Amino acid sequence: MSNKKTRILIAKPGLDGHDRGAKFIARALRDAGFEVIYTGLRQTPEAIASAAIQEDVQWVGLSCLSGAHNSLFPKVVEILKQKQAEDIKVFGGGVIPSDDIPGLKEAGIKEIFTPGATSKSVIDYINSN
Amino acid sequence: MVQKILAGDIRSIARAITLAENEDYQAVELMRSLYSHTGKAYLVGITGPPGGGKSTLVDRMIAYYRKLDLKVAVIGIDPSSTFTGGALLGDRVRMQAHATDSGVFIRSMGSRGHLGGLAVATADSAKILDAAGYDIIIFETVGIGQSEIEVASQVDTTVLVTVPGLGDDIQVLKAGTMEIADIFVVNKADRDGVEKSVMAIEQLLSTWDMTEDDFVPPILKVTAKDNIGIGELAQAIEQHKKYLHDSGKFEVRRRNRAVTEVHTLILNQLDKWAHDKMTKDITTRDNIEEVYLKFIDPHTVAREALRELELETMWDKWGQGADGGG
Ligand SMILES: Nc1nc2c(ncn2[C@@H]2O[C@H](COP(=O)(O)OP(=O)(O)OP(=O)(O)O)[C@@H](O)[C@H]2O)c(=O)[nH]1
Ligand SMILES: [Mg+2]
Fold it and tell me: Of A81, B29, B212, B287, most Cβ neighbours within 10 A?
């Protein structure tokens, strides 16, 4: 008998100073039965990747409001790959122009949730992937 | 995997802890191979009320031990929801400054809820980290439930963190919780009421039944936020360690731990067996329905269920014992 759980790291890279959105989704994921590890504000991609590996999560959710997602999100994917942890899947959220989405997916971000997305859509996405 | 863990490979350590948490069968194999490589690390428990500053304190302790070039691992345990099984694990937030330090390993753990499960996961995780070469392993638990008692039985030194304002109403922490402390920390000593808290703890200690040979828990004033009192805490831990060794209690504790561990593992498996029996075995389920309907009594049904383990006769033996052999 095994007692498996999906673990998700929620992190906020970049310099913007509030994490209401990240905390909201963290709570919604907890309520959906996931184990959510929250790392707080202003995280470097290196710190996020290290935490993801130590925590042995299946998913990393990145939230960014500062506009720096185009450099920060791919950087996390890249470091995970360098550390032979490319099996850890990354999704993103925040204020992200739709024009940026194809480029981010190209860079290995599995899915992007824009501010209109419901927490249910995030939960459904994780459950089906 | 064993070789990689012994070599300190982070990914392998992290995965091994997951196996232990999931109670995966592979963890049993793994623990068998790792066991002879354990016993070097010193285990410290940090417990106390929610928001008392435990994680902040642990963050400062990591920095302190890193300066001494010791490798530090932390396991931060938070309760899982009994309804959804989900958990929001936030201890890491205060420790992220150490995330990229290769001499520091931080792991968040949900209590996940079933009898003894957490105790097994934490004991196995400590062994994995011990075998991987971490010198100090720190467990953070919230001092409100069963988990800190379970964890306290697994560590060498337990530090109980309180804050001013709680101290004068020491009842907030249940009697059982206070007794596990080897060291008291009154954190947030920058706030009013520190002396009052210290006095309340002294008062409590004076009611303890202690002999001359017992370790008298020191009471330390700490301001974790400003990194004040951390060296004193590390010294107190060192003194307690020395006391345990000098008095021979170190060996006593580790022997007791072996007893507790085996006991917990047995109970854990029996609990799973019982759960399966109650939910999956048709006869037992039907019998339980009949208990509800008052056709059979619960003792008879339990006894019938235990027949599978050939434990039903245990009742007869206990019964004879209770009846004085009659
Ligand atoms: N005034 C003061 N605040 C402190 C001190 N240490 C920690 N805090 C604050 O107390 C709050 C809780 O700190 P944490 O370290 O997260 O406390 P915790 O006990 O780990 O909390 P949980 O794990 O949620 O139970 C934070 O806002 C800290 O900044 C201190 O020495 N003085
Ligand atoms: Mg904490």
Answer: B287
